[in-house]
Amino acid sequence: MIPKRKAQARAAFAGVLALMVAIVALLMVPQARTRLDNIAFDTLQSLWPRSYVPVPVRIIDIDEQSLAKLGQWPWPRALLARLIESLRAQGAATIALDVVLAEPDRTAPARVSQDWPLNAQTRAAIAALPDPDQILAQTIAGGWVVTGFAASDQDLGLDGEAKARFIRSGPINDQALPDLGHAIGSLPAFQQAAAGNGAIAVLSDGDGIIRRVPLLVRLGDQWHPSLALEALRVATGKRNILVKGAPETGALTEIDIGLLKIPVDDQGAAHLHYTKPQPQRFIPAWAVLDGSARPQDIAHHIVFIGTSAKGLQDLRLTAQGDIVPGVVMHAETVEAAELGALLRRPDWAEGAETLIAIAAGLILLAAAAWLSPVTAAAIALTALVTLAAAAIGAFLDRGLLLNPLPAMASALIAHGLTALVRHRQDQSERAFIRRAFARYISPNLVRHLLDNPQSLAMGGERRECSFVMTDLAGFTTLVEQADPATLLEILNGYINGMVKIAFRHQGTLDRIVGDAVAVMFSAPVMQPDHAARAVACALEMDAFSRDYVAAMRAQGHSLGITRIGVNTGMVTIGNVGGGAISDYRALGDAVNAAARLETVNRYLGSHICVAASTVDQCSDFHGRPVGALVLKGKSEATLAFEPLAEGVDCSAYLAAYEKMAAGDAAAMDAFAPLAETDPLAAFHLKRLQAGQTGITVVLAEK
Fold it and tell me: I want to staple 571 with a disulfide (CB 3.0 to 4.6 A). Which of 2, 418, 588, 638 is the partner?
């Protein structure tokens, strides 16, 4: 068995190894870390979505009803021009197009009529009609319009550099910005006429959920703002965008437009804190065109023109599991930026989370290694709740995205493996103790001590128990005559058989003195049927002893019968002893009485003598009365019985016993024919012949 301190150290070492593996996985497998981040952030957003606060941001929705009323997409450019003019006329601060108008208007008269069979005069008249693209460009040039561009797998290019001017504050790691590679934008005429041009880009994770919107993107070495950031810039009338980086690492931290400060991560992306879907955020496009939209919902508002129509396939999945139009991401970004409600993922967060994971893991594995399982579990639960509460508090109070899962997972792994090793060690130790001590004490006592170690304390309790006391006649003579090796072989075989029988009946071995065996029942584990167990144990011991003695006699070893006494009574049970040694014992007169009943067998000629206190609790007891025995040192008689195997007929003895109990002189004649083969009948016949009467037998010797 491993010493306890060494076992604890081994368990702690296993926990440290598990913690190291977990930390290395967090650092070296970014997919695992990202997955944990996503789980934590999605859970926080689902449980605590951002409360919708009306701000001057709206979505002009090209919805299913607008398509039904105004025609399928793409709409004629003249219709878009009317929509923009109407919004501008109602005082919109910025009109951002979440659509890319990359191709000329297919409804332009000059293009539609190309295949018509027209004469020269008519064709010239059609060619002289205004070009819808020019009309839209002129409308866009009226101000406050932001066009969009999207990533493309072809180099379709943009018309010129970004209209915004970027000012760097501190070193900036350009390579961290998402590179769109190539871009496709609206027609050059629209781009030139627009007040701004922004990227229609979102960052979709591997599960398709949009959690971040990039505010800055790259096309090669050139920076470009997102549609949301450009809409904010145009609405504020600013030209410059201030981009801040961390002095030590160059990681992006913040983007400023005038007094508006927008927190971003090292990739220049804003972490969205979604609201639940808000119908009041949308204004149908048809309502703007027919004048039914409320002017106060447009005046001084940043409006995004986008679509919720399913057929146009611009639907996205939020962290809360809602499917919303893609334009909502831009609108929510602007809303949260104006409210200061964008979530922040500090550049120090990952390092801090890793350190917390190490600290939490060490604390929990130490608890699992050196403390009790209940205490260790309580500490683990407290640590997990504390980590979760701290992350929730930071999220709700300061909008910080701090992920407790890396620390919780690492700590649980370390704690779990340590606890598992400790459990295996404890099980191994218990098994060792059980195997080792079962050779010396009863298995049920071993189990009791393992399950109730507090019972090892000094002290006791009062309880009714049953006792079986045995003694092997002729053993003293055998000791004097046999050589030591033979003596031990004979004794070991006898004791082994007797003890196995006691254990089979779940008795507790009280002690072995030479050839004598003492067994108790209902201690330490309570047994309601302890009396019946004791009688059954005594009968089986007697049967074993008869066979064993016969076998030894056949080998030339003279052994006598095994005498057995059984008694039931109240005793004090518990550990007795001192600091050096202790013993689990039963103390009381019931123990002494069982020993006295064992000795009286030598006078009675019986093998087993059972007190009435035991017989009274055995509903199926089969046997015969011995008499009322006044044991040595006692003043009151103990009614005793001899148990018999099933099928043994004792009717003749019972008839003679009843005559003796009644003082009938015929009892002597009744016992006489039985005395030849029945030692107990011979005992009573001898008493009667000596002039004694009744069933009371006074024993002068032990």
Answer: 588
Q: Which two tokens stand for residue 675?
A: 């005395």
Q: Which of 405, 407, 389, 385 is nearest to 397 (CA)?
A: 389
DSSP 8-state class, residue 176: G
Q: How far is Cα 337 from Cα 638, in angstroms, rounded to an integer?
A: 97
pLDDT tens-digit series, residues 476-487: 777 777 788 888
> Does 60 score more than 80 pLDDT?
yes
Asked if 92 contacts 283 with a C-beta cutoff of 8 angstroms, the reply is no
Residues 175-191 pLDDT 10s: 889 888 888 889 999 99
Token digits of residue 391: 């992350």
For β-strands 582-587 and 608-611, DSSP reports them as: unpaired
Q: How far apart are CA 282 and CA 60, in angstroms?
A: 6
- Report how far residue 479's alpha carbon sits from residue 515's, in angstroms, rounded to the nearest whole number: 11
* Under 8 Å between Cβ of 647 and 641: no
- Joined together, the tokens standing for residue 151 give 């990533």
Q: At what angle do helices 4-28 and 30-47 cross, to 10 degrees?
A: 90
Q: Are strands 240-245 and 252-257 parallel, antiparallel or unpaired?
A: antiparallel
The burial of 225, by beta-carbon neighbours within 10 Å (0-12 exposed, 13-18 middle, 19 or more buried), is given as buried
Q: Strands 196-199 and 145-152: what pairing?
A: parallel
Cα 493 to chain centroid, rounded = 52
Residue with tokens 């608890």: 367
Q: Per-residue pLDDT tens for 281-323? A: 999 999 999 999 999 999 999 999 999 988 787 888 888 888 8
- 10 Å CB burial of residue 513 (0-12, 13-18, 19+) is exposed
Q: Residue 42 in contact with residue 404, Cβ under 8 Å?
A: no
Determine the pLDDT at residue 1: 45
Question: What's 52's DSSP letter?
Answer: P
Q: How far apart are CA 11 and CA 424, in angstroms?
A: 10
- Residue given tokens 């004794």 in the structure block: 491
Residue with tokens 């501008």: 88
CB 629 within 8 A of CB 697: yes
Q: Where are the beta strands (DSSP E) in 473-561?
A: 508-513, 516-521
- pTM higher than the cut 0.70: no
Question: Residue 154 has what pLDDT?
Answer: 74
CA distance 482 to 558: 10
Q: Are 212 and 271 in contact (CB under 8 A)?
A: yes
Average pLDDT over residues 113-120: 62
Chain position carrying tokens 């996205």: 316
pLDDT top residue among 558 and 577: 558
- Alpha carbon distance 521, 529 (integer Å): 9
Q: Phi and psi for 417 in degrees, rounded to 5?
A: -65, -40
- 424: which residues sit within 8 A by CB, 6+ positions away? none
Q: Rounded CA gap, 222 and 243, in Å? A: 14
**DSSP run (H or E) holding 537:** helix 530-554
Alpha carbons 401 and 392: distance in angstroms, whole number: 9
Q: Choose among 512, 503, 506, 516: nearest CA to 476.
A: 516
Q: Is the dihedral of CA 335, 336, 340, 346 positive or negative?
A: negative
